[in-house]
Design a protein that fits this description.
This protein is mainly alpha-helical and 597 residues long. The chain is 76% helix and 2% strand. A hairpin with a 2-residue loop joins strand 1 and strand 2. Helix 6 runs antiparallel to helix 7. The chain is flat and about 160 Å long.
C-alpha cells in the first residue's frame, strides 16, 4: 500500500512542478511581450532620431556652404579693396609726379624743340637770308638759359645762336658753360652741329675734345652711332683721323694694362685677342692621322699643338674674308649721306637726363599699376616686358672684339667695323706671327716611329722622299725574328709535368683507397685531372708553337699596315703643317691696307 502511494505522491509533485513551470513560462512570455513592445518603441525613437540627425546634417552642410561663400566674398572684397587701394596710391603718386615733372622738366621739352630748330640747315639759311631776325634767335636762346640754367642743352643752344650772330666771345662763354655741365654731350653736340652746318674743321676739333672726355671702359650706346658717322666721313676726314688716333691710343693703353695686370690678362688686350684667334685654329678629329698618332706615341701632343698653331693664320684669313667680303676696298668706302650724323644728333637732343629718366621710369611703373587695376604682379610683368633692352655701357676692347669677330652683336656698319679692324690689326698681325714662330719651333726635323719595339727615325720634310718598302721589310723581318724567338722559347715545362704526375699518383694511390662515398669520387676526378694536365703539358708544345706563330703573323700584318699608313699620313700631316704656315704671308698681304704707320 505504501509502495503504491509513493509513486502517486511523486506524480503529484511532478505535476505541481510542471504547473509551476507553466506559470513561470507565462510570466516570462508576458515580460517578453513587454520587451518586444519596448524594443519597438526604441526602434521608432531611433528612426525619429536618425531623421532629426539627417536634418541637422543637412542644415550643417548648408551652413558650411554659406560660410564658404561668405569667406570667398570676403576674400574677394579684401583683394579688390587691396587693389583699389594700390590704384588709389598709384593715382595719387602719379598725380604728384606729373605735377613735379611739369614743374621741373616741362621747360626742357621746349629747349629741345629750340635746339632741333637751331641746328637745322633751313634755320641757318633763314638767318643768313635775314628771314629770321637775329634778335629773336638771341631772345629765345637766352630765355632757355634763364629757365634751365643747369641743363647743358640750354647754353649749348645759346652758343649756336651766338654763332648765327657772329658773336664769337659770347659763343665761347656759352660753350664753356655747356661743357662745364656735361662735357661729353656738349662736345658731341657742337661737333655734330658744326658738321651739319658744313664746318668740318670745327667739327673735327670738337670731336677730338669729345673723344678725350670719354672713358674707354664705359662707352655708351650712342658711341656706336657716332662711330658710324665718323667712319662714313660724314664729319670730315679730319674727324675720322682724330678718331682713328684716339682708338689706337685706347688700344695701346689696354694692351699695357693687360700686360701689367694678371687679372685683366684673361679678359682684355692682347691675351684676350690671342685667345680669340686660337679659337679660329683648325682641329684634328680622333679618326684623322690615327696611324701616325699611334706610331708617334708621346711626341704626338707636341706635334698636334704645333700643327694647330700653324693653322691660326689660315683661320684668321678665312674669318676676315667672310666677315669683310669687300676686303681692303671697304677702307676707302664713299662718304656717307649724313644719316648717321643726323641720327646721332637727334638721339643726343632727345636723350633724357638721369633725373628725367628716373622720374619717367617711376611714372611708367605707376601707369602699369593703374592699367592692371592694382594687380602688382601683372603690372610688374607688363612693365618689364615694355622696357627696351638695357643699353649698358660697353668697354672699348669689347666693342673692338665684337666689331671684328662678332659683328651681329654690335650695331656697327661696315665702315666702322673696318676702322675697328684697322685698330686691332697690329695686335692681330703680331699674334699671328707669334703663333707661326711658335709652330715653327715645334716642327721637328726628324720624327721617330715606334711599332712593337721597333723604331726608326724619318725626316719630317715631305719634300724628302722616304721609300716605304725597305722600312716595311725591315719591320717585317724584325717581327719575324721576334716571333721566331718567342716560338723557340716554347718548350716542355718539365717541372709542371713532374708535379702533376706526382700529385696525381698521391691522390690516386694514397688517398682514394682510404676514403669512400663522395670524397672518393672527388679525389678520383682530381687524380684524373692531374694526369690529364701532365699529358697536355707533354704533348701541347707543337700546338703552342703554332699559336705563337699565328699571333706573330697577325701582329706583323697589322704592324706593316700601320707603318704604311703612318708613312703616308706623315707626308700629308707635315705638308699640311707647312702649307698652313705659308698662309701667314697671304694674311699679311690681305691686311696690308689696315697696317698703320
Amino acid at each position: 500500500m505504501e509502495d503504491r502511494l509513493e509513486p502517486e505522491s511523486a506524480l503529484d509533485r511532478l505535476s505541481e512542478r510542471i504547473v509551476g513551470v507553466e506559470k513561470g513560462q507565462a510570466r516570462h512570455e508576458e515580460k517578453l511581450d513587454g520587451f518586444r513592445t519596448g524594443l519597438h518603441d526604441v526602434r521608432t525613437d531611433l528612426v525619429k532620431l536618425g531623421d532629426e540627425v539627417t536634418g541637422v546634417r543637412t542644415k550643417v552642410t548648408g551652413l558650411e556652404h554659406s560660410i564658404t561663400d561668405t569667406r570667398q566674398r570676403l576674400d574677394g572684397f579684401l583683394e579688390q579693396y587691396g587693389r583699389d587701394r594700390e590704384v588709389s596710391r598709384a593715382q595719387a603718386e602719379l598725380s604728384r609726379l606729373t605735377t613735379e615733372w611739369h614743374a621741373h622738366f616741362a621747360q626742357r621739352k621746349q629747349t629741345r624743340a629750340l635746339a632741333r630748330s637751331l641746328v637745322h640747315t633751313l634755320t641757318a639759311q633763314a638767318v643768313e637770308g635775314k628771314v629770321v631776325n637775329t634778335a629773336t634767335v638771341r631772345a629765345c636762346s637766352e630765355e632757355r638759359l634763364l629757365l634751365e640754367p643747369t641743363y647743358w642743352l640750354a647754353p649749348a643752344t645759346m652758343a649756336v645762336a651766338a654763332d648765327f650772330r657772329r658773336e664769337r666771345e659770347q659763343a665761347e662763354r656759352a660753350q664753356s658753360h655747356a661743357c662745364a655741365l656735361d662735357a661729353a654731350k656738349a662736345n658731341l653736340f657742337f661737333s655734330l652741329t658744326c658738321s651739319r652746318l658744313g664746318n668740318e674743321t670745327r667739327a673735327a676739333a670738337w670731336m677730338d675734345l669729345y673723344l678725350q672726355s670719354l672713358d674707354p671702359d664705359e662707352l655708351g650706346q650712342d658711341f656706336c652711332v657716332v662711330l658710324d658717322a665718323v667712319a662714313s666721313r660724314e664729319l670730315g676726314e679730319k674727324a675720322r683721323g682724330y678718331t682713328q688716333q684716339t682708338m689706337a691710343r685706347w688700344n695701346r693703353g689696354s694692351l699695357r694694362l693687360s700686360a701689367d695686370s694678371r687679372m685683366a690678362r684673361g679678359t682684355r688686350g692682347g691675351a684676350h685677342l690671342e685667345s680669340r684667334l686660337l679659337n679660329l685654329r683648325s682641329r684634328i678629329t680622333e679618326k684623322q692621322y690615327a696611324a701616325l698618332r699611334t706610331t708617334c706615341g708621346k711626341d704626338w701632343q707636341n706635334l698636334l699643338s704645333g700643327w694647330e698653331l700653324a693653322t691660326v693664320p689660315g683661320g684668321i684669313l678665312t674669318h676676315l674674308k667672310r666677315r669683310f667680303p669687300d676686303g681692303a676696298e671697304g677702307v676707302d668706302a664713299p662718304v656717307g649721306g649724313g644719316g648717321h650724323a643726323e641720327s646721332a644728333l637727334d638721339r643726343l637732343i632727345e636723350q633724357l637726363e638721369p633725373d628725367e629718366a628716373d622720374m619717367r621710369e617711376k611714372m611708367r611703373r605707376l601707369e602699369r599699376v593703374i592699367e592692371h587695376e592694382g594687380d602688382l604682379e601683372k603690372a610688374t610683368a607688363a612693365h618689364r616686358s615694355s622696357l627696351a633692352p638695357d643699353a649698358a655701357p660697353v668697354a672699348f676692347m669689347t666693342l673692338l672684339d665684337q666689331a671684328v669677330f662678332e659683328p651681329d652683336d654690335v650695331p656697327l656698319g661696315e665702315p666702322a667695323r673696318h676702322m675697328a679692324l684697322r685698330v686691332v690689326w697690329p695686335g692681330l698681325e703680331n699674334a699671328a706671327q707669334r703663333f707661326v714662330a711658335d709652330s715653327r719651333q715645334r716642327l721637328p726635323p726628324h720624327l721617330t716611329l715606334r711599332i712593337a719595339g721597333w723604331k726608326r727615325t724619318v725626316p719630317t720634310d715631305s719634300r724628302t722622299p722616304v721609300q716605304p718598302g725597305p722600312l716595311v721589310d725591315e719591320l717585317a723581318t724584325h717581327l719575324e725574328r721576334q716571333t721566331q724567338a718567342q716560338s723557340d722559347a716554347v718548350v716542355r715545362r718539365w717541372p709542371r709535368v713532374v708535379a702533376a704526375v706526382v700529385m696525381g699518383v698521391v691522390a690516386g694511390a694514397l688517398v682514394v683507397p682510404f676514403v669512400d662515398g663522395m670524397s672518393q669520387w672527388m679525389f678520383g676526378l682530381l687524380a684524373l685531372a692531374l694526369f690529364g694536365w701532365a699529358i697536355w703539358e707533354f704533348w701541347s708544345v707543337p700546338f703552342r708553337k703554332k699559336q705563337v706563330r699565328d699571333q706573330g703573323d697577325r701582329l706583323r700584318h697589322e704592324a706593316v699596315t700601320t707603318l704604311s699608313q703612318a708613312l703616308r699620313q706623315r707626308e700629308e700631316f707635315f705638308e699640311d703643317w707647312r702649307d698652313a704656315m705659308d698662309q701667314l704671308p697671304a694674311l699679311l698681304r690681305w691686311g696690308a691696307p689696315y697696317r698703320q704707320d
